[in-house]
């Protein structure tokens, strides 16, 4: 008996508990529309006071909710974030507490919750949630290349739309250089708008089209892939050029040093050969009794030797200058002879031209003389023909007149007709 009474009490309590419900778990609306999110509640009897609270979950389910609207019996509180956009359509008798939002944006693409509070009635379903999906067509995607398009490299072709709700789905289409459809390589992967190409070659070159699509509409972009042979970059090329130049400079410096050392050794050898004293020059010819006289003579001989060395050095310098002058003079002579040869060649050509011109003048004079003779002969022949024509005999006698016909014998007299 006690169990039956308890069950009846539980059923009576549930029948009288508050119940908040939203007809659908998800609503879809286009961006910029003015929408209404319904919320129904069934109170226990006629409540003396009803408090309606609409909140939105900005992040995940565990993130704190943000207040959109709170309705008290005497006032309605709207935070600054939703002021002017959010309002409440309340009908307590019918159990309606609908939320109205104007000009929705992608930031409203979240989960909204409706909570109803009635003092003394805190049992049952006090809150329900609904998801708002703001429909936005995908924007024109941007196609880009990641990596170096050279033989044997791996590259990625990326495709991304800046906006789109629901999230767009990306697909790629390939065409070869002749703009005909081409089958995808088995190693190629397509994930989230990223087309990965491995070990590319010249056959990979072509046209690639990416399509971004959701339930509203679609948009596409194109990219041309041109695979080229490997090439050295600017840094490596500059390094190689710099190394070659440095090597050439070092070689030139070594050659210059060797030449200078060789010339210096030759000059020292010449100086030594010229400065070597003759046999017996410094030998004592006769014994000298006084040591000071011998020292003075040695100093004189040494100074004489120094003067000779200086003179020899000057002679060597003069010889070098003389050789240099001779080289310059021979170079000048060679250039002058070359100039004379060219001038003589020009004179020969000019004389040849004059000879040809004189020959042409003589030939023209002969042609003129021949024409004059022919013209004179023609005139002379014409004159002779004319003279012969006038020299022919002329007959002054008149031609004989024909005899008149004879008169017949039976002709009548004139007076008869």
Structure characterization notes:
There is one protein chain. This protein is of the alpha+beta class and 417 residues long. Helices cover 38% and strands 24% of the residues. The chain has helices at residues 2-15, 234-275, 291-391; strands at 18-21, 26-30, 35-37, 40-42, 51-57, 65-71, 76-77, 86-91, 96-101, 111-117, 124-125, 127-135, 142-146, 155-160, 169-175, 189-191, 194-197, 206-213, 218-225. A hairpin with an 8-residue loop joins β13 and β14 (155-160).
The count of β-strands is 19
Largest sheet: 6 strands, mixed
Strand order across the largest sheet: 2-12-10-5-6-7
Strand content: 15-25%
Helical content stands at 25-40%
Mean pLDDT: 81
| Overall body shape | flat
Structural class: alpha+beta
Report how far the terminal alpha carbons are from each other: 196 Å
Number of helices: 3
Overall radius of gyration: 64 Å
Low-confidence blocks of residues? 1-15, 278-289
H/E element sequence: HEEEEEEEEEEEEEEEEEEEHH
Oligomer state of the chains in this structure: single chain
């Amino acid at each position: 008996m006690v169990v039956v009474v308890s069950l009846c009490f539980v059923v009576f309590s549930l029948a009288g508990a508050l119940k908040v419900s939203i007809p659908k778990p998800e609503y879809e609306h286009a961006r910029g529309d003015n929408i209404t999110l319904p919320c129904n509640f069934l109170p226990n009897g006629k409540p003396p006071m009803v408090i309606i609270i609409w909140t939105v979950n900005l992040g995940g389910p565990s993130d704190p909710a943000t207040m959109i609207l709170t309705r008290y019996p005497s006032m309605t509180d709207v935070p600054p974030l939703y002021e002017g956009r959010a309002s409440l359509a309340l009908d307590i008798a019918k159990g309606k507490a609908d939320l109205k939002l104007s000009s929705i944006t992608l930031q409203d693409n979240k989960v909204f919750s409706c909570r109803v509070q009635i003092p003394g009635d805190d049992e049952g379903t006090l809150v329900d949630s609904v998801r708002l999906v703001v429909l936005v067509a995908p924007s024109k995607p941007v196609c880009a290349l990641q990596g170096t398009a050279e033989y044997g490299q791996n590259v990625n072709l990326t495709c991304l739309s800046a906006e789109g709700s629901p999230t767009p789905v990306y697909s790629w289409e390939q065409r070869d250089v002749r703009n005909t459809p081409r089958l995808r390589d088995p190693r190629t992967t397509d994930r989230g708008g990223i087309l990965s190409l491995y070990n590319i070659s010249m056959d990979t070159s072509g046209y690639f089209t990416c399509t971004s699509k959701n339930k509203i509409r679609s948009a596409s972009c194109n990219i041309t892939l041109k695979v080229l042979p490997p090439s050295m970059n600017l840094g490596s090329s500059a390094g190689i050029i710099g190394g070659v130049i440095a090597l050439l400079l070092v070689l030139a410096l070594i050659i210059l040093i060797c030449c200078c050392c060789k010339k210096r050794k030759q000059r020292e050898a010449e100086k030594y050969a010229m400065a070597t004293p003759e046999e017996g020059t410094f030998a004592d010819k006769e014994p000298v009794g006084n040591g000071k006289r011998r020292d003075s003579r040695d100093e004189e001989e040494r100074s004489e030797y120094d003067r000779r060395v200086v003179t020899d050095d000057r002679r060597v310098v003069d010889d070098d200058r003389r050789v240099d002058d001779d080289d310059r003079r021979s170079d000048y002579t060679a250039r002058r002879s070359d100039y004379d040869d060219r001038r003589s060649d020009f004179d020969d050509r000019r004389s040849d031209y004059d000879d040809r011109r004189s020959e042409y003048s003589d030939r023209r004079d002969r042609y003129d003389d021949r024409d004059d003779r022919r013209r004179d002969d023609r005139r002379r022949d014409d004159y002779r023909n004319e003279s012969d024509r006038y020299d022919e005999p002329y007959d002054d006698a008149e031609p004989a007149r024909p005899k008149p016909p004879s008169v017949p014998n039976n002709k009548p007299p004139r007076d008869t007709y």
